[in-house]
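Lab manual, section 2.4: Encoding a predicted structure.

Procedure: take the sequence of the chain (204 residues), apply the prediction step described in section 2.3, and record the output as structure tokens. A sample record is shown.
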Amino acid sequence: MKKIGTAVAFAVLLASCQGNEKTQEQRQHSVEEHQHSSAVPAKNQANEGEQKKPLSPHTSAMAMVGDAHIHIDYSSPRVRNRIVFGGLVALDEVWVSGAHNATWLEADKALRIAGNELPAGKYALFTIPGEDQWTVIFNRNWEQHGKDEYKQSDDVFRFKVEPETLQETKEELTYEVNKQSDRDGTISLAWEKKKISFPFEVIQ
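Recorded output:
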């Protein structure tokens, strides 16, 4: 009878140990599942960070023409399947000619543009897009958000240019400063299906 009691006690002890081992395995499995599930959002957050790129990245265009340095600073929006001129950008209204802060041009030498003298310095570059003509504006208040503080009384001068129609869509707004000689160059703006350009001369 004593042997039977001992055997029963041994069986109960063995079952208890097996139960504890199973509980430990379940706990370990639960921890691993928690660690795995915690790692997933971190990975997703990293992917989201990579995907959140600026819609209108900040960039610039510049060139040396003779001993003059011309620099244009702007934000470059994308078309993204939108109608730009006559849609996103209203015709016959002052446009920041970029995105966010006003596009600005800086030259360390005076320039002659469309018969006007632009003294050395930094200026906001606005435009008024139109069907057949665009107005290009150099404004003294170069540091402003969009056209929030634009005042025509701050204009240095304005002039007219005829836009060119592009055969292929230009996805990103792009400025270029191109040297033609030691005294002459051109400045251009292209976006969607439109491009404008105008010459300048460095005043010695």
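Check your result against the sample. The two ends are 120 Å apart (CA to CA).
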